[in-house]
Design brief:
Blueprint lengths: L4 E2 L2 E4 L2 E4 L13 H27 L27 E2 L14 H12 L17 E9 L3 H8 L9 E8 L6 E8 L6 E5 L9 E2 L7 H17 L1 H8 L13 E5 L11 E8 L8 E9 L9 E7 L2 E3 L2 H9 L12 H4 L29 E4 L2 E4 L2 E8 L3 E9 L2 E16 L4 H5 L1 E3 L23 E7 L7 E24 L6 E20 L2 E9 L5 E9 L3 E3 L8 E5 L2 E4 L1 E11 L7 E12 L10 E10 L7 E2 L7 E10 L5 E9 L23 E5 L24 H5 L9 E11 L15 E9 L13 E6 L6 E4 L13 E2 L10
Parallel strand pairs: 4-15
Antiparallel strand pairs: 1-40, 2-3, 5-6, 6-7, 7-8, 7-9, 10-11, 11-12, 12-13, 13-14, 15-16, 16-17, 17-18, 18-19, 19-20, 19-29, 21-22, 22-23, 23-24, 23-38, 24-25, 25-37, 26-28, 27-28, 29-36, 30-31, 30-33, 32-35, 33-34, 34-37, 35-36, 38-39
Protein name: Amine oxidase
GO molecular function, one term: primary methylamine oxidase activity
InterPro entries: Cu_Am_Ox_Cu-bd, Cu_Am_ox_TPQ-bd, Cu_amine_oxidase, Cu_amine_oxidase_C, Cu_amine_oxidase_C_sf, Cu_amine_oxidase_N-reg, Cu_amine_oxidase_N2, DUF1965
Length: about 800
């Protein structure tokens, strides 16, 4: 990682003092007489200050110094280290959970390129009807083998890679998955067929449009739009094919999925002006390319949607325009009109002069350790893994050395749109197919993560000829959530005086990555609290998908500009949580909350008491545990072990879902089968190694007949009592955009979370062991107080570093 901090500097009024330099200020330009006067004044101030220090010291005030006991002032503190207790490199040899290294990716690629039977070409030289590497990642060993290794000290399972090939050279054209081993020096490869897949072979049409295909499609667009150059310039003031260097050129982007039927490869594209924030400058032109099959000479542009009218060829569209039919003019926005799509500050200045906001730093250094992929934070231990399709996940999550979950991972981020025109009525996105790891771009210190965070590079192999370094693509940091984890102010009801205060700061460790999937930015957090709670949070921001305003689409959204509309959509996120409560043999219960009426209680004679109660409901099979939430039947979701706490209650963990949305698309219609997991707010299945994900990288382009159909996981209705269980959790939010979504959606109000909480797992609150608690009790006669802060002091042993963002995006850093 590059150096993201400047040298420390101290600012005193308008004098800026850099280390190793003399201060420069207008005061240093005073003449000699003025200088003596200033020196005398400073001497008097210093003398008064020393007298004040003596008086304060002699008064017996024992308040701690805010700086280190070994220093006299903030300026003498050393800078907080960026590297203490942190080792960013993977362990050598890698652990079972370490992502593929750059060298391993290169070794696998080179090995496969030498296998003549695969007929592979480098992707830069590949054609649609050839064979090339599409994606690469780690092939995790079976869970049983991993547990035997990390718990039983058996031999580490062989390290392997999973490589996805595009085989346009075969008949029928298909996608293949190969396991390549052993790493780091592969010598063998075997074709992989997952028994949970619903398609064999996997059709090539299920692949996302990659750079091989996109190159051909862009040439078709250039050729066809050149025919209509006068239409484009007459309607929009600019063209497409020869527009390089002209401000606000037209640019085209394709919509997913590529068709309404399984196997279809017909993609709609919509045109917008290439200004900053181009997402918000649609012009109302949409075209469709038919790119079915591998014979690219047969590919065509066969539909044009212009001025709310559908044409069946470019020629038909041009003829109508030339005859004065359906002509439309969308004037080029002026500079002021273009500002609404930018992040430039505008509006009244809320604070003049501008002042810095609060910052996060560790006054005595980091309280967590990182070695390669392994993280240790206070009583937590876990491994971080970067999985191509769905990004960062965590494995072997332990609290006090007891495993709580084998895996917690994002599976899918989906968006389903509604609208009238081809764009809005077609769009349904399943972002795991876009490869979230390849969309996890550089995080900005002090904005995306606190500047004191640890930033990690990752390596991605997707749609490239080699590993691609994703600089600072995820971060780890500890911070204060801004609300106590727990607190109470005890007081005397008679005189109102306090008797004690107890509280604790909610310091947490956060693992964060952000993925920019075209217009939307998603921020994903794994949050570890000191009371044994794991929290997963998905936040949506970035630009809304916008279309050119028309009266038909007005039923589906609101205007965010005079000629721009943003339409209704639903965000859906699916997570996999492989829960292991004191082992792999667990049970799943719902604690169903009900209303009871009682008139038999002797202390309620003559009255009826309506009150809540709950019933424990053991779920025996997968179908019983596929939950569609109903507000009239509230419930807890509890995983239990066969061990009990000190009070004889089964030890367990429960799920709390703070962000649910109903899937409004009926089951088995349109693109819904590709995200059948969204039918359930939580579903529990018996764990199987082959059922490793609720989705696949093929779901986006063939959601109608998906390769992985989550519904099949629950259809076999297996027993789930005393089994190794997996919870599949769905979070969601309906979004009807509004004018405040310009230029982009705010994370406020767009954060969804679920939590895995101890439930009778401990005999008391686990955070009582934390050093971050404080207890305050009054001294006799309320003359002061005694404070128990568990040995902590208020000293600072290092100073925060200065933030410098000028190296952001620097490919050499």
């Amino acid at each position: 990682m590059g150096n993201i901090f400047m040298k420390k500097r101290v600012v005193i009024n308008d004098m800026e003092i850099h280390e190793g330099t003399k201060p420069k200020s207008k005061f240093w330009k005073l003449n000699r007489l003025q200088g003596w006067k200033l020196a005398t004044l400073i001497a008097v101030i210093i003398s008064l200050g020393l007298m004040l220090v003596i008086l304060v010291t002699s008064s017996g005030n024992d308040s701690p110094s805010p700086t280190s006991p070994d220093t006299d002032s903030y300026s003498e503190l050393k800078k907080c280290s960026k590297s203490d207790s942190i080792t960013l490199q993977n362990e050598d040899p890698p652990t079972v959970f370490d992502s593929l290294t750059e060298m391993e990716m290169v070794a696998v690629r080179d090995y496969l390129l030498y296998q003549t039977g695969l007929l592979l070409k480098p992707i830069e030289k590949a054609t649609v009807d050839s064979s090339y590497i599409y994606q690469m990642g780690l092939s995790l060993p079976n869970k049983a083998d991993v547990l035997n290794h990390i718990d039983g000290n058996s031999q580490k399972p062989e390290r392997r890679a999973k490589v996805v090939l595009a085989r346009g050279d075969l008949n029928p054209p298909q996608m293949q998955e190969w396991i390549v081993f052993p790493l780091p020096k592969p010598t063998s490869h075997v074709l992989y067929k997952n028994p949970s897949y619903q398609r064999d072979p996997i059709p090539l049409s299920a692949k996302m449009v990659d750079k091989v295909e996109d190159k051909v499609l862009k040439e078709i667009l250039r050729r066809e739009m050149q025919k209509a150059e006068h239409v484009l310039k007459g309607s929009y003031g600019v063209g497409y094919h020869d527009c390089l260097g002209t401000e606000g050129c037209l640019t085209f982007f394709d919509i997913k999925p590529a068709g309404f039927a399984s196997g279809e490869r017909k993609s709609w594209w919509w045109a917008m002006r290439d200004f900053e924030g181009f997402y918000l400058f649609p012009v109302g032109l949409q075209v469709r390319t038919n790119h079915e099959g591998t014979n690219t000479s047969a590919w065509t542009l066969d539909r044009v949607f212009y001025n709310n009218t559908l044409f069946y060829s470019v020629e038909e569209w041009i003829a109508a325009y030339d005859n004065g039919i359906h002509r439309y003019i969308d004037p080029v926005p002026n500079k002021r009109e273009r500002q609404y799509a930018t992040y430039n500050r505008r509006g009244p200045l809320p604070l003049d002069p501008p002042l810095q906001g609060p910052r996060v730093y560790e006054p005595q250094g980091r309280r967590y350790n990182i070695s390669g992929s392994k993280v240790k934070y206070l009583e937590w231990d876990f491994h971080i893994h970067n999985q191509g399709s769905s990004g960062i996940r965590v494995y072997d999550v332990r609290f006090r050395n007891e495993r709580i979950a084998y895996e917690i991972s994002l599976q899918e981020a989906a968006v389903m749109y509604g609208g009238w025109d081809p764009l809005m009525s077609t769009a349904n996105y399943m972002d795991a197919s876009w490869n979230l790891a390849a969309e996890a771009f550089e995080l900005v210190p002090g904005v995306d993560c606190p500047e004191n965070a640890v930033y990690f590079d990752t390596w991605s192999y997707f749609n490239t000829h080699g590993p691609k370094r994703m600089k600072n693509s995820y971060c780890v940091f500890e911070h204060n959530t801004g609300i106590p984890l727990r607190r109470h102010h005890g007081y005397n009801y008679h005189d109102g005086r306090y008797t004690y205060y107890g509280g604790m700061v909610d310091y947490v460790l956060v693992v964060r990555f952000a993925a920019t999937v075209w217009n939307y930015d998603y921020i994903f957090d794994y949050i570890f609290h000191q009371n044994g709670v794991v929290e997963c949070r998905a936040s949506a921001t970035g630009y809304v998908q916008a279309t050119h305003f028309n009266t038909e689409d007005a039923r589906y959204g609101h205007k965010i500009a005079p000629r721009v509309l943003a339409g209704i959509h639903t965000h859906l996120f699916n997570y996999k949580v492989d829960v292991d409560v004191l082992g792999t043999a667990n049970r799943f219960y719902t604690y169903d909350i009900e209303t009871e009426s009682r008139s038999d209680l002797p202390w309620y004679q003559g009255y009826q008491k309506d009150q809540p109660r709950f019933t424990k409901n053991l779920k025996q099979t997968e179908w019983q545990a596929a939950i569609q939430y109903k507000f009239e039947n509230p419930k807890y979701y509890v995983f239990r072990s066969n061990q009990t706490n000190a009070y004889g209650t089964p030890r367990g963990f429960r799920f709390q879902l703070n962000g649910m949305a109903k899937q409004v698309v009926p089951p088995r219609t349109g693109a819904e089968p590709g995200l059948s997991w969204s039918r359930y707010q939580i579903a529990i299945t018996k764990r199987k190694d082959e059922e490793d994900s609720s989705t696949s990288l093929y779901s986006q382009c063939d959601p109608v007949n998906p390769v992985v159909n989550f519904e099949s996981y629950v259809q076999d209705d297996e027993n789930i009592v005393d089994e190794d269980l997996v919870a599949w959790v769905t979070l969601g939010k309906h979004h009807i955009p509004h004018s405040e979504d310009a230029p982009s959606t705010a994370t406020t109000g767009n954060q969804l979370t679920f939590l895995l909480l101890p439930y009778n797992y401990f005999d008391e609150d686990a955070s009582l062991a934390s050093i971050d608690g404080v207890v305050i009790r009054p001294k006799s006669g309320y003359q002061g107080a005694t404070v128990d802060s568990n040995g902590r002091n208020g000293y600072m042993t290092c100073a925060p570093l200065q933030l410098n963002l000028t190296s952001y995006g620097d490919i050499n850093s």
